[in-house]
């Protein structure tokens, strides 16, 4: 999107709910069937006419096509899609409690039962009407979604998103991918639609970019291969580092992939190189957050520096970085600490303000400590984090959870001593069977602390 186009979008009182220069263009692939934009709009109209009255709806649809239909129907009714940090009953109930008068919607029977739950009707193939070809506009300033942070650094926080902001953020993602694979492509995503990354890459792209998306959310490597085979070339695989590592190590052969996209957690360069070599396609990592949406990218196998999307600028601050972006109504301060390069169009990430540690005059970062932990042969997964309480001299201890079936805790600590200052050795370090990652691979802080407490020393 050019600067002039950004300006027009910011001034427009209404913006399209769906972009389709050709109403017959394929928007989604579901159960082996290609679904056109006009057929999709007919489904949206059918559902919108039957939705309950309310201010907002928790969109719990697991099937991606059902989510797309519900997302647009909710927006068409002037309501907001509530996107909880997970579909766990407690997380859903907390979001609903924060929005009195809302309801929840899903395509399946709610299990366990959920108050104020409305089940999406079967999306039939009724005859199209002339109204289905008149694609709607909605107010640009309407809040169409409220995304919640994952809780990896504390309590999940709500982030309202207007339709104007989504149009702007989608333009950056679309330009990045089109520069990589061409104007048209087909997306298969392993991430849930409720996560802001999944929403951007598998909901907004087909709605606003004339891209098609596979309706499933494959989890196991073999399922990813099947889903990719069900869409035409060129194919873009939207994935997370956790899923990508499992895919690389599985030995499963994939249909030709034009590009891979990753987010939600730092991508180890070694994994990026292995994935590119294994699948013969570039891997683009994107940088963003629930608060900002995506605003930068890099090809991790080749570059350490991130390239900003058009219209984005960063301004380093003492305690973080100020970001200005087309999707933001006003500048926002991030906790990330960066060093700008190439006239401010690129940056290197130095850590997060909350990620930085200082003990006895020495400094380290939790992300770097985690990276060194994961580099130990035999460590399959792990995380280093800081505890909330301080010891007798006022220092908050560093802890670690490690998945390493063939190692013991003393051996892991001995390996860490070779690469980090003893001041930053995690104590306690606990070996566990698995880390409490959510659907996108993130680690909610409360879950990490609970797991650490379960494995305390006698």
Which strand order does the major sheet show?
A: 3-2-12-11-13-14-15-16-17-22-21
Q: What's the overall geometry?
A: globular
> What name is given to the CATH topology of the largest domain?
Rossmann fold
Tell me the CATH architecture of the largest domain: 3-Layer(aba) Sandwich
Number of domains: 2
User: Count the helices. How many?
Assistant: 12
Mind describing the biggest β-sheet?
Answer: 11 strands, mixed
Distance between the termini: 60 Å
Secondary structure elements and their pairing?
Layout: H1 3-11, E1 14-16, E2 26-30, E3 33-36, H2 37-48, E4 56-59, H3 64-76, E5 80-83, H4 89-97, E6 103-106, E7 117-119, E8 137-139, E9 143-148, E10 158-162, H5 163-181, E11 186-189, H6 196-208, E12 212-214, H7 221-229, E13 235-239, H8 241-250, E14 259-262, H9 269-279, E15 283-287, E16 296-299, E17 306-308, E18 313-317, E19 320-324, E20 332-334, E21 336-341, E22 346-352, E23 356-359, E24 362-365, H10 366-374, E25 381-390, E26 396-403, H11 409-417, E27 429-431, H12 445-454
Parallel strand pairs: 2-12, 4-5, 4-6, 5-9, 6-7, 11-12, 11-13, 13-14, 14-15, 26-27
Antiparallel strand pairs: 1-8, 2-3, 9-10, 15-16, 16-17, 17-22, 18-19, 19-20, 21-22, 23-24, 25-26
